[in-house]
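Q: Structure tokens for this one, please.
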Amino acid sequence: MLPLDLGPWATTATFFLLGAAFGIVLELAGFGDARKLSAQFYFKDMTVFKTMFTGIVTAAILIFLSASFGYLDFSKLFVNQTFLWPGIIGGLVMGVGFVVGGYCPGTSIVSAASFKLDGVVFVIGATIGVGLFGETVGSFRDFWNSSYTERLLLSDVFGWSLGQAVFVVTALALVLFYFVERVEQSYRTPDAAIDWKPSNKRYIAGAAVALGLSGLVWANGQPSPEKKWDHMGGEYQAMLDQREVFIHPFEWVRSWNDSSIKLVTLDLRPAAEFEKFHLDGARNVTFDQLLDAKLVYELNQLPGHGLVIVVADDEGEAVRAWKRLKVEGVSNLYLLENGLREWEKTFSAFTTTKHFNLSHPPARVLDAVPADSWKAKIKMKTARRASGLCG
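A: Here is the predicted structure, written as tokens:
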């Protein structure tokens, strides 16, 4: 998940060390013991719940606080895709397995690594289950791929800002921590009256810090595209300087005619010019509309084969639009070289051909021009996958 390119060997070593450290911490915390893990479902020991929520809150605060002050580009962190109903059903299946077996996949590996027999048996069973799933998923593939969303956050679901979502999640976690502590107390001393008054000063101080930092994330907000560019622009400026993202009209034609590509063309020209002539499927937008959260969200929801091409006759405006969308995390983003000013001239040799449509020239024009007359620049990229504690 780190937006760093360390090279294959350093990346492998880093992941190995992180994984080993993670496993050691889980074992030291007692998460290699099925009794401790399953006790949370009986509300007797909520260590797993508190650990998970502590990790979520700590990560959320650090990530979005860093992003708020421009030290981290959140758009570069991969967010797992959402398949809502398959996820709900899968969660129920895993939850039942957790209660019955006492482990989730990650903790079963920790248990097996410490030679616990039940952990070994659980890993074997999980491996067989994965194999059976792989052999049968074709029979329910439509459901497995249903209710799909590429990048879905709580802030998107409820219409909140990222800071507001962080604050609410933090506050909710603190409230739940308080109540589960009281529940654990009732099991430890069933005959004693529950002490509802918070007394642990370290817990109170920690809660105040967490709430304060999450409030700072909300108050400071996330940086504007211009501020993001000040922090991150150096990484992308070379792409503009070397014109790596300016594509030839012939490359637009190739992309439009490629059924494996989902092409989105954003036309920034005035509405009158757009109505007079525009590329097939193009969407007329203004520069200010590029700040619309719904549009940015839509572009970030494009699948891995999604391609966005910006069209503007003024190169300065096109570059400004590219910068704005780039720092908002839009991937596979390119500019049409020279806009549409020379579009008709480029295809003038073909316009006499019957049924030739300038708004979407057919792929055969590419066969009729010298291969060295233009250079392909589009390189489709997809985000790296990631998984969590029980992924």
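A few notes: The domain at 225-373 is CATH 3.40.250.10 (Oxidized Rhodanese; domain 1). Confidence is low (pLDDT under 50) at residues 384-389.
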